[in-house]
Amino acid sequence: MYMWLSSIRLGFPRKCIHPTQNNHNRLIFAHGGSGGGSFKWASSQAALALWNSSSSHSDESSDDNSVTVCTTNVATNGANRTHCFSELDTSGVVSKLNCLRNEPNLAISFFHRVKGDGFRHNVYTYSALIRILCCWGLDRKLDSLFVNLINCCEDLEFEISDLMEAIEEGIEVSPSMIRAYDALLKSFVSLNMFDEAIDVLFQTKRRGFVPHIFTSNFLMNRLVEHSKVDMAVAIYKQLKRIGMNPNDYTYAIVIKGLCKKGSLEEAVEVFQEMQEAGVTPSAFAYTAYIEGLCTNHRPDLGYQVLQACHGENVLIDVYAYNAVIRGFCNEMKFDEAESILLDMEKRGLVPDSYTYSVMICGYCKSSKLLKALALHNDMESKGIKTNCVIVSLILQCMCNMGMPSEAVDQFREYKSLGIYLDEVSYNIAVDAFCKLGKMEQALELLEEMKCKHMVLDIMHYTTLIKGYFLQGHVVEAASFLKEMKEKGLKPDITTYNVLDLLDYMGAHGFKPDSVTHNMIIENLCVGGKVKEAEAFLYSLEYKNADTYSAMVNGYCEANHTKEAYELLIRLAKQGTLVKQGLALKYSVNFV
C-alpha cells in the first residue's frame, strides 16, 4: 500500500512546512506564557508551606475568609452523621476535603456547600478538590471545574498557573498530576483558547512528562477544524521530538490537515512515517487522504486509493465513496459517479441520502432534470427518505429551466406526501408563483410559513419584491420594501437591483414616483453602491427636499459622513431644508 501511495505523487507541487512558517508556531518553542488574558505561569512561593500546614485541622483562623458550616453525611448503616465546623478557614476547608478524599461525591458537595454559605475558595481549597477528582478519575467533573475556572478567571484572586503549581508542589510526577494537566489543556481547547492550550502542553514537558496522547490528539484535531493546520503539524513534530508516540489517530489527524491545505505530497510522507513506526493506518486516515484528493480535483486518484484499500482489506465506509462521487460530480463526470455508485452497492455498502443528494445536485446544476428525477425515484424506491435539501434542488432546477408551473405542481405534491419543506423550499415556490404572475398565491404561501412559525427573512422579501416589480406593481413592491426595513432587515443590492428594475419599468411604461426614488437611493447606499446612488440622484429631472433627504440618509447609513456634511451645507446655501432630524443623525454618525 505504501509503495502504491508513493506512486501517485506525480503532478503535485511540493510544499514544505517549517515550524517558523507563521507567528503561531513561536508558541511551541516559547518558555513563557501566551501573553494573552490573565493566564500565565507564575510561581507560588507559599504553596508548599500552606499545603503542608493545611494537611491537618487547625483550630486557629489563618485568614478572614471564614464561615460556620454544618454538613450531614449518610453513614453506611443508614444513620445520619452531622459535622459542624465553627468559623471554617482555608486550612479547615482543606482539612475537611482531605478527610473526605475517599468519598469524592461528599467532597464535591461540601466544596459547593461552603461556597454557597459565603466561603471564597482559593488556590489551596481548589487544589485539594482537584487532587480528589484526579485520584478517582472523575474526568467529566474535572473538565467542568476547569472550564468554570477559566470562564471566571477575572474574578479569581489567584492565577490558574498558581493553582497548577500548588497541585504539584512537594510530590513527584503522578497519574493525578498528569490527569490535572490533561483536563486543563482540554478545557482551554474546548473554549478555543489555543494559545493557552499550547502553553499548557509544553509546560508539561518542562515538568518531566507529556500529556496523554488522546489529549494531544484533541488539540491537534480542533486546530485542523479551525484551519490552523500549520500549528497542528508543528505541534505534531515537536511532540515527536519530546518523546510522544503518535497513534493511528494522531497520524490520521495530520493527514487530514495536510490534505485540507492541499499538501498531498506531505500527506504521503506521513503514511511513510507510519510504516517506519510500525503503525497500521486506519480507515480514517485513508478516508481523509481520499477526500483530500477529491477536494483538490483528483477524484480519479481518490478512486484508485479507494480500490487499493479494498485490495488491502481496509474497511472503507460510505463516507469515502461519497467523497469520490462528489469529486466526480464537481468535475461534471456523471458517468464515473454512477459507476462508483454501482460499485458501492456491489460491495454491500448502502448509499445514504447524502450520496443521492450529491448526484442530484450535480444533475440539477447541469440542467439534467430528467436524470435528477429518475435518481430521486430510485432513491425513494430503495426506502431512502428524501429531504428538503434534495427537494429544493429539484424545484430550483425547474425554475431555472423556465418551468415555474411544474415547480409549483411538484412543490404541492411534495407537501401532500408529508415531506418536510423548509424556508428555502417555500421561497422557491414563492418565486415560481411570482414568475407565473400569481401574487395572491405567493402571499398565501408566506402566510402559511408564518402559521408554521417559520421566519421570513431578506430572501423571502427579495423574492416577493422582485415579483411585484416584474408584474409592474411598483406601489406594492415599495410597500414590502418599507415593511422589510421596519422589521430591521437591511436590503442588499440583490434585494433591489435598481438598474434592471428601472430598465424594466421604463420598457413597460411604468413611472416610479418620488417614494420609489427615495427608496432606491437609500437601498443602494445600504448595499454599498454609493456611487450608483449619486448617479441615480443626479439623473432625476425633478428633485425635492425628500429626495435630497434620502441621499443624506443614505450617506449616513454607508458611513460617508464627509459627503453627508458637504451635501447638507450645499443644500443650506441653496435654501433647501432636509427632513428634521437628519442633521442630528449626521452629527451622531460623525462623532
Tell me what portion of residues adopts beta-strand conformation: under 5%
Structural class: mainly alpha
Quaternary assembly: single chain
The biggest sheet, with number of strands, parallel, antiparallel or mixed sense and barrel status, is:
2 strands, antiparallel
Which runs of at least 5 residues are low in confidence (pLDDT < 50)? 9-64, 71-86
The percent of residues in helical segments reads 55-70%
**Shape, principal axes of CA atoms:** extended
Rg over CA atoms, rounded to whole Å, is 33 Å
Please report the total strand number as a whole number.
2
Alpha-carbon distance between the termini?
Answer: 67 Å
Overall mean pLDDT stands at 81
Strand order in space, largest sheet: 1-2
The DSSP helix count reads: 31
Fold and architecture overview:
By secondary structure, this protein is mostly helical. Among the domains are: 37-211, no CATH class; 352-436, Alpha Horseshoe (Serine Threonine Protein Phosphatase 5, Tetratricopeptide repeat), CATH 1.25.40. It is built from 31 helices and 2 strands. The chain has helices at 2-6, 47-53, 90-99, 104-116, 123-135, 139-151, 160-168, 175-190, 194-206, 213-225, 229-241, 248-260, 264-277, 283-295, 299-311, 318-330, 334-346, 353-365, 369-381, 388-400, 404-416, 423-435, 439-451, 458-470, 474-486, 498-507, 514-526, 530-539, 545-557, 561-574, 582-590; strands at residues 67-74, 80-88. Strands 1-2 form a two-stranded antiparallel ribbon. A hairpin with a 5-residue loop joins strand 1 and strand 2. Helix 24 packs antiparallel against helix 25. The two termini are 67 Å apart.
